[in-house]
Specification:
Blueprint (H helix, E strand, L loop, with lengths): L17 E8 L3 E8 L5 E5 L2 E2 L5 H6 L2 H10 L3 H13 L7 H13 L4 H11 L4 E7 L5 H9 E8 L2 H7 L7 E5 L14 E5 L7 H11 L4 E6 L16 H10 L3 E2 L9 E8 L2 E13 L1
Helix pairs in contact: 2-3, 4-7, 5-6
The structure holds S-adenosylmethionine (SAM) and zinc ion.
The site of S-adenosylmethionine has 15 residues, from β6.
Amino acid sequence: MHEFSLGFLRCVRCTSKLWVDIFCQDSEITEGMLECKGCGLNFPIIDAVPIIWDDFSKYLSSRITLGGKLFRLASTGRMKKFVKDSLSKSVRGDDQTALEKRWSEIYQRSKNSKFYVMIKSKLRQIPPSELAVEYGCSIGLMSDFLARHNKTVFGIDKSYSAIQIAKKLPKKNLDFVVADSLSPLFGDQKFNVVLALNVLELIEPLDLLEHVSKQISKGYLVISDPYDFDRGKNSVKKSFDEKSLRKNLYDLGFSISNKTQKPSYIPWTLNLNSRCTLNYKVDLVVAKK
Ligand SMILES: C[S@@+](CC[C@H](N)C(=O)[O-])C[C@H]1O[C@@H](n2cnc3c(N)ncnc32)[C@H](O)[C@@H]1O
Ligand SMILES: [Zn+2]
């Protein structure tokens, strides 16, 4: 974690400022504890990745294998103890570790999809700004691109596996955090650019739009989705389509760029393995306040 991030990140339980106790450091903080003086909650930084989750034991409950990995990655006794104590309080649930790792690998294999070329061309049309964030950034490809044109950029994803890969991107003005996109991670901080690509099936759409809307008083939201909501019990409560996405954006006070008023069908190819690809047609909206 870069030290500059401390100026932006807040406790996700009480939104107080965070303090850092650095255990190991090179060009950035590689291991340490983010501490909330307001409510006393601690958030670990392990292998340079901050995990800012309301309840770390709960985070590990659905990632028991990751818990073991974090224990091995921790290089100090203090951090090993923290991970071990958190694991002992976790309740074994469905282990997401392998699934999150598999998807990180799929995104690495799919870097060259034309979809990302298209997104880059849209992002180039947005004026350079102070502060940008990408929600559901996965391995950080587009956050990295945002960091070329914007002064400070954050990428947020709940997958440790994806953020660990993203953290290898060597930009000094770009940082990544494992967190829930809907948590109050940035307090009442405003952003000039928010990017949310293909996440509406996973992050409750209306909640995400309302959350992002509060974070933009003057700026841009770039949002895309294939509207692939048929996911059984894992589905979000309210699914969106081309119309409802645009209507909800209007209702929240956004205007929509002329070029994205009509639904689009941008090909997005995910290389699942060497014999199988998943081909989506994605709708893109560039909204502005
Ligand atoms: C379908 S992928 C899209 C990845 C990337 N935006 C892209 O289009 O290439 C969705 C990503 O959102 C992340 N995600 C899902 N729910 C999340 C949440 N509540 N908070 C943060 N990230 C979340 C997943 O871990 C995954 O990396
Ligand atoms: Zn707190």
